[in-house]
């Protein structure tokens, strides 16, 4: 079922006039017949009073990008609740050959109290670092600031420098206070800047130890996604230098400069590092998508096309054929249950786009999609970046300017080969989500709870893929909710095995007898409403 402009106007009409004008810029009904490209507003402040699904800058920095690095201890300088939120809800899996160098299962915080807010928390932070070094002896430490730290003015940088001098390891300070940006996207940017400036390129390697060396960027190993992707890539013959940052290691991250190609999975969270690596070391980046069978196949073929090696291409096709033979018949069984159903897909930075293809392979059409914290280029494609106007909030996170490394910069491709490949594969490009959505579907930025309920009543989706915050609200409305931030204790959902697991979980959602005991809102509300006119004076 397609959404009409009239229906959209009726939903927005319930807002005060100023709010209505604001939200209208964040919602559009896809129409490819329009003369001018459809523009959506994104990366702006959520209107006060609206219940949003967004997280804060601290969550984006520590919770998403930095936190999954396993051989570092990550200290949250702030209240315990902030630390727990970014540790207990992400399910970043990690394994290591050295059990003493995997700190993912620990939650470290200074647990700031009222007295620390009054008198300052630098001494307490110093004490926590001392305890960490005494007990755990990590390869490095990160410190992430929360809102009260920024308000009272604790100097994280000074504490970090003293700890580095004392212990001889790197201590990274991230001033990523929650209020630093309009969403967690600001935290991604802060984390990218810090890792690029202080970690990447600090390793001793001058060249990769094996052929076909790649970095996997924007993969956080939720539910084991990264392990499934690595399984396939390694079977083909690629050497993974580092993963940023799911199951990633600080020691590997330092040598990211030796890779021949960077693969970008989550564009929003890691595109800054991808661009800076290309400028500083000459390493191109390729937009990839390992969510869905066909997306995985297309990605594997694109990587092989980049390297242009006949033997690598043959191995790629052999692995694809083997994987398809193993899973296709099983997927067909799940398709019988899913065929003809519809979905909302409102997830994170790239998942709202990536999962539409996997839904489609199961016979499920996405009728509404959007992102919590995207920028316009995530919707409309990177070609709009020069047209994006920088506001005060955006300028609050400065771009890190990098230059060619005089010793390590190396062109991986000739300019001619680069331009030739750009015509075949998404090299240094991302087309955005909007281009792949059908006419009549709804594209919405920073979807809130009121709009969610109203869109559900009109479009009547069979399943809603979203995050942790609205999962139970959706289920109480009689609709299965597939939580795609941390996978509801399931996964992996990436790659070939992931597609199969996703199909199994979706089918379980549809088949659950739970929905027999819950009434969807459109079944106990009138489909038509009206008013009785004043009949006075009528004959």
UniProtKB/TrEMBL annotation:
Its protein name is: Nitrogenase protein alpha chain
Task: Please give the cofactor(s) recorded in the UniProt entry for this protein.
Answer: [8Fe-7S] cluster; [7Fe-Mo-9S-C-homocitryl] cluster
Q: Catalyzes what?
A: N2 + 8 reduced [2Fe-2S]-[ferredoxin] + 16 ATP + 16 H2O = H2 + 8 oxidized [2Fe-2S]-[ferredoxin] + 2 NH4(+) + 16 ADP + 16 phosphate + 6 H(+)
SUPFAM superfamilies under this entry?
Answer: Helical backbone' metal receptor
List cellular component terms (GO). molybdenum-iron nitrogenase complex
What lineage is on file? Bacteria, Bacillati, Bacillota, Negativicutes, Selenomonadales
Top-level EC class: oxidoreductase
The entry's function note states: This molybdenum-iron protein is part of the nitrogenase complex that catalyzes the key enzymatic reactions in nitrogen fixation.
Molecular function via GO = ATP binding; iron-sulfur cluster binding; metal ion binding; nitrogenase activity
Could you tell me which Gene3D superfamilies the record lists for this protein?
A: Nitrogenase molybdenum iron protein domain
Q: Which organism is it from?
A: Dendrosporobacter quercicolus
